[in-house]
């Protein structure tokens, strides 16, 4: 490993300094919780009876306290392809626990919604705040104080951040994240994208579009494009919260089962009272959070994590903002080109070397912190290898050179010299610009704007030919407090069509675009949001807007100081949206993580 990059060291020290007070309070909290962890010999027999009554064959072992009891928090449902494999996990994990004299119980379940299903629909307005609900559900699951460690079963967009936030508030417990892996590759991403654009132009039927989509999303496992779900798995590797190399091993394989088994055995080894105590609150420190950010930048991961990383960090008492991300992006090279940034998907990425290759390259270049406490049996260096089987024994080996230099490149010869995200700011606020999928000749767009309050209105204007010009499309009142900050992914195809027609096109919004924002330049997560008088609320059709990733500009020449803000359109009800009024009302800004729960808790 090389000496640490100067900028990485400087940003890390800045985050440590900013976090002194909050991190100190957090460490005090989890120490108190560890000290107060109930000795089950002193717990009421009535309490224990309630906890053991349903344990069946594990009941005698629990009564005798023969070994650690592991809580399983599962986000299983069989509507999400990524979570469908978890249906049979509890019975397998319990068997693995018995092998080492431990027990396991399903502590609780969390909701798990799919942004792919709710994309462009009313349910998407619940998506961001489902992260808070998942964190709260995790807290409820672990509140029984019957566990010596936890296994977190979840993969997708808000689910892993929610599970991690919840687990961190029980930071005295060890916790390991257990992914289920990606589905096999389907039709080529190029073919899928072409059909989507043909449909946007009215040149393909709905039946043809559905057939194409089913050719891509076709079986159990994570969606194979590199969006938020797979970026989650990348981050768990970078933070050392997986059994090393677990992220992208497909469901149902012998290696997948060996990694799951190792997770159960390992969480039992690192519990309270053991010789290798590794509580998650100590694993997730400032350096681990920086590693997650570095991994995001080095792989061109989902822009949603510009919101999730600050929120996860806050749960551990760590303060990180977009300036920190932008400074890291200036020195972290882009090592991976995975769809939608490239042509191959996460299966191709994994075959080419995957996370083992990325982590090894980053460590060798001094661009990641090796000296972090992981859930594995070493520091982060083991995560720079790849898992395999020697017969039935799980082993790790050197990952070797890139198996495909169109997918993975060394730090000495990256796809880009800087990371995949940049901070843009000016008199329109602060926002995130994902550069890794955008051609450099499109980094700057300066054009009159068209202002919309709903994404459906953009589609209507596109179909009417009103956007056939150089244009900055502004979609406002899409922030956390306005309507829960839905993804606006459905805007990508029409804006891409306009771009292919030769127009200079950009998107500016206080909403989200996820990891699938495509090749259209976009300033997303604008903060302060329009609701409450943010600058986007003062824009009018025809105002000149400049977006530039090179200079970091997000500005207008219009004099906003003389204008009143346009009021937020009346919020919609139905689809349970009214039940989330508390979350919207109390949410903080996107740069802080867009969380009502953390804001109300004073974290």
Automatic annotation (TrEMBL):
Q: Name one GO biological process term.
A: D-gluconate metabolic process
Q: Which gene encodes it?
A: edd
Which protein are we looking at? Phosphogluconate dehydratase
- Which UniProt key words apply to this protein? 4Fe-4S, Carbohydrate metabolism, Gluconate utilization, Iron, Iron-sulfur, Lyase, Metal-binding
For this record, the Gene Ontology CC terms, alphabetical, are: cytosol
Highest rank taxon of the organism: Bacteria
PANTHER family listed in its UniProt record: D-XYLONATE DEHYDRATASE (PTHR43661), PHOSPHOGLUCONATE DEHYDRATASE (PTHR43661:SF1)
Question: What remark does the entry make about the cofactor?
Answer: Binds 1 [4Fe-4S] cluster.
UniProt pathway annotation: Carbohydrate metabolism; Entner-Doudoroff pathway
Q: Which reaction does it catalyse?
A: 6-phospho-D-gluconate = 2-dehydro-3-deoxy-6-phospho-D-gluconate + H2O
Asked whether the UniProt record includes Iron-sulfur among its keywords, one would answer yes
Q: What InterPro entries does the record tag this protein with?
A: 6-phosphgluc_deHydtase, Dihydro-acid_dehy_C, DiOHA_6PGluconate_deHydtase_CS, ILV_EDD_C, ILV_EDD_N, IlvD/EDD_N
- A Pfam family per the record: ILV_EDD_C
Q: Which residues bind [4Fe-4S] cluster?
A: 156, 223
Region annotated Disordered sits at 400-419
Which residues fall in a coiled-coil region? Answer: none
Which metal ions or organic cofactors does this protein require, according to UniProt? [4Fe-4S] cluster
Q: Where is the Dihydroxy-acid/6-phosphogluconate dehydratase N-terminal domain?
A: 68-380
Give one GO term, molecular function aspect: phosphogluconate dehydratase activity
